[in-house]
């Protein structure tokens, strides 16, 4: 027997006893689980009042499709495989009822408005191809449809204005591969090492220079992760205006600073050695410098927020309750996140707050880049809402909501966890004061707010859309921009239009403008617009008349007309501008809600531009107009492809009508300039790239309503601030010492692509 064996056994037994003791101790001291967290909420169920604003269900969308297939008397091809010469359903969305009908239902016990859908159809297989919009209802069992196109737009919508379907994009890809690239085989193989898989392309808009054009520049990139910053120097202009795909043709070619008639001429010039070739180093599949794969190993986990006593908000169907707030939410296929019937302490303060448009205007010395003006609502801010990643896109324990949409297909698509709702401790006081004069005390309130968020990925950019509800009655609308910068191939005087981001990559200068619709109803539907500001006045000191004092005084002005309420981007706007009610608070002031804009927008596109009227909402940082059912949005999805004859011109909304004691709408524009720089590699961060607005009560209440919040903290020097009944923070070791119930991580963003 080995003499060391007993000692080895003793040591081993001691180690085992130690481990078991630790396990028992740890189990004995294990904190209890926190109350259960909400899981993904499906928007089905009760017929509460908020459902008047609810998005269409998947079944309702399918019912609309079946109805149209059976009642229009024309063949309808699935949009996912439709040719330009076919008839198809482009999209189906909720038709929001008229405001007057909704208010009769919500406030006066009137009948529930009929539930209806808005269907957009492309009629390519007709003697006069056109776009037609139908209202279909009542849902869930449609029995009628009516053509609303002429009523909405004053006439039929020409077919060339149609947003591009995914099927047309695929058909253009086939054209480029089989016709355009095939015409220059030597150039494509020797210069780009083209193998039919290693090239990605991106179309730029608008399509041409005048109404009726459908001529598109395509920029070629290496087909790698983050391809947007891997241009290869080749751009191809394709004329696809014909409804006969066989008639599509290359109109122009651009390579490394030189223009060519077509791909045949490019091939000839290359074979004859008359081209200055700039070969781009082949990037690995992960994109190398554009890869978003972390360059560091995982370390200590980042902070995680949880609710020790469960969520303090509720989500039922499309209705949210939080502290004194309540609102309904929805997702428009074109404009994205929108809110309705927003109330604080039971009183409606806004009927609608919604995103309208996101615009980018680019500069470059390459043809595609210099002609790009993206109006992302045309592509679909709701259509391209992306599934959210727990713990990054939203807090891990947020409530995640699925949404449905129908576009580019006959079947609705479900986007899991594409909207999130959560309460966020912002880590700072909403208000506080520490008194060390006279009485000694501390009073404060944690700034905890409710956030509803969606993220739209439109091409290279990701827009993080937030609406935030604070305990003092303020609402914030905010967008943060991230994603990849768009780029051009660096050549010639390219540095006049941006910064060099990599060897051949020019990050092109561009603007971001976003537009919101804010239909405030302050103390009722009828409001006036009032401006307060400050001016210095010179006065003699009453107690010393020989001395002069420059004192600020309050200036007041009622803005009576739409022209007075339209503030150009660079104009001076009153610093306090608010919707005033016909009622007063305890102190005799008109109750109001103030609009405060956070924006760094510079110059708008010159008004002399032939396309400026299509984006004329961007002229104004703020414009207030009388609300009209026939002016539901500041733009149209059809403006992108025919900005020279816009379907909706916002500037025409402003016609000097009286806006005193009327139902008013504020149209708010915020923006910033983006000059891509080296820190935009691998892609752009949200920090510093955020704009939006605040809606703040202004004499609306008799005092700050957050004083009634349960989150307040107050104690004096004479109180025992370690006692729970005096200071709830003293109880945190007891009330917050629980383990949150983290659901398993799941992600469905790569399903059904």
Automatic annotation (TrEMBL):
Residues found modified as 2',4',5'-topaquinone: 461
Similarity comment: Belongs to the copper/topaquinone oxidase family.
Organism of provenance: Cinclus mexicanus
Lineage of source species: Eukaryota, Metazoa, Chordata, Craniata, Vertebrata
Domain called Copper amine oxidase N2-terminal: residue spans: 76-144
Enzyme nomenclature, EC number: 1.4.3.-
Cofactor annotation remark: Contains 1 topaquinone per subunit.
Signal peptide coordinates: none
Alphabetical keyword list: Copper, Membrane, Metal-binding, Oxidoreductase, TPQ, Transmembrane, Transmembrane helix
Protein name from the UniProt record: Amine oxidase
Transmembrane segments: 7-26
Family matches, as Pfam families: Cu_amine_oxid, Cu_amine_oxidN2, Cu_amine_oxidN3
GO molecular function terms attached to this record: copper ion binding; primary methylamine oxidase activity; quinone binding
Listed cofactors: Cu cation
Domain named Copper amine oxidase N3-terminal: residues: 193-257
Recorded GO CC terms: plasma membrane
């Amino acid at each position: 027997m080995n003499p060391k064996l007993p000692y080895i056994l003793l040591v081993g037994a001691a180690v085992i006893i130690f481990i078991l003791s630790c396990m028992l101790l740890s189990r004995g001291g294990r904190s209890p689980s926190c109350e259960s967290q909400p899981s993904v909420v499906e928007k089905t169920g009760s017929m509460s009042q908020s459902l008047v604003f609810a998005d269409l269900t998947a079944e309702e969308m399918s019912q609309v499709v079946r109805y149209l297939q059976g009642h229009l008397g024309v063949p309808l091809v699935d949009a996912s495989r439709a040719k330009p010469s076919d008839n198809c359903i482009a999209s189906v969305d909720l038709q929001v009822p008229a405001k007057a009908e909704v208010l009769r239902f919500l406030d006066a016990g009137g009948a529930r408005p009929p539930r209806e859908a808005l269907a957009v159809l492309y009629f390519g297989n007709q003697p006069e191809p056109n776009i037609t919009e139908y209202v279909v209802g009542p849902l869930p069992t449609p029995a009628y449809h009516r053509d609303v196109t002429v009523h909405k737009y004053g006439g039929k919508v020409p077919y060339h204005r149609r947003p591009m379907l995914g099927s047309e994009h695929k058909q253009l890809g086939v054209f480029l591969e089989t016709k355009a690239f095939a015409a220059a085989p030597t150039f494509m193989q020797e210069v780009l090492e083209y193998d039919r898989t290693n090239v990605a392309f991106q179309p730029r808009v608008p399509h041409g220079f005048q109404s009726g054009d459908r001529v598109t520049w395509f920029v070629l990139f290496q087909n790698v992760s983050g391809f947007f910053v891997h241009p290869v120097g080749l751009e191809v202009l394709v004329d696809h205006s014909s409804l006969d795909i066989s008639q599509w043709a290359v109109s122009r070619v651009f390579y490394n600073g030189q223009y060519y008639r077509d791909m045949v001429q490019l091939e000839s010039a290359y074979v004859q050695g008359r081209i200055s070739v700039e070969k781009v180093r082949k990037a690995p599949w992960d994109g190398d410098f554009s890869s978003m794969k972390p360059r560091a190993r995982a370390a200590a986990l980042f902070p995680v927020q949880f609710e020790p006593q469960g969520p303090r908000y509720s989500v039922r169907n499309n209705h949210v309750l939080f502290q004194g707030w309540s609102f309904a939410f929805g997702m428009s296929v074109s404009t994205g996140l929108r809110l309705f019937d927003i109330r604080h302490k039971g009183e409606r303060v806004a009927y609608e707050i919604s995103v309208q448009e996101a615009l980018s205007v680019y500069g470059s010395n390459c043809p595609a880049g210099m002609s790009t003006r993206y109006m992302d609502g045309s592509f679909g801010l709701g259509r391209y809402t992306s599934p959210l990643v727990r713990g990054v896109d939203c807090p891990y324990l947020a409530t995640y909501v699925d949404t449905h949409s129908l576009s580019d297909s006959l079947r609705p698509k479900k986007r899991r966890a594409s909207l999130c709702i959560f309460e966020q401790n912002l880590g700072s006081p909403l208000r506080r004061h520490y008194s060390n004069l006279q009485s000694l005390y501390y009073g404060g309130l944690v700034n905890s707010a409710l956030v509803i968020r969606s993220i739209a990925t439109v091409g290279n950019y990701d827009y993080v859309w937030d609406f935030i509800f604070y305990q003092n009655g303020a609402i914030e609308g905010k967008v943060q921009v991230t994603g990849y910068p768009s780029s051009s191939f660096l050549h010639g005087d390219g540095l006049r239009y941006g910064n060099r981001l990599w060897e051949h990559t020019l990050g092109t200068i561009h603007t971001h403008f976003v537009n919101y619709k804010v239909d405030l109803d302050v103390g009722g539907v009828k409001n006036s617009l009032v401006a307060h500001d400050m001016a210095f006045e010179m006065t003699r000191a009453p107690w010393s008349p020989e001395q002069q004092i420059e004192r600020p005084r309050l200036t007041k002005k009622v803005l009576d007309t739409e022209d007075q309420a339209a503030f150009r981007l660079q104009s001076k706007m009153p610093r306090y501008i608010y919707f005033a009610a016909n009622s007063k608070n305890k102190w005799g002031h008109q109750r109001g809600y103030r609009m405060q804009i956070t924006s760094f927008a510079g110059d708008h596109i010159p008004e002399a531009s032939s396309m400026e009227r299509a984006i004329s909402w961007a002229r104004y940082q703020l414009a207030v107009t009388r609300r009209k059912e026939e002016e539901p949005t500041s733009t149209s999805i059809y403006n992108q492809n025919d900005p020279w004859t816009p379907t909706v011109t916002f500037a025409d909304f402003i016609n000097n009508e009286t806006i005193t004691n009327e139902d008013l709408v504020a149209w708010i524009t915020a923006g910033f300039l983006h000059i891509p720089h080296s820190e935009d590699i691998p892609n752009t961060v949200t920090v510093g790239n955020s704009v939006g607005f605040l809606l703040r009560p202004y004499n609306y209440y008799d005092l700050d309503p957050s004083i009634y919040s349960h989150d307040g903290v107050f104690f004096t020097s004479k109180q025992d601030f370690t006692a729970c009944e005096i200071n709830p923070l003293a109880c945190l070791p007891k009330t917050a010492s629980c383990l949150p119930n983290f659901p398993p991580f799941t992600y469905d963003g790569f399903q059904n692509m």
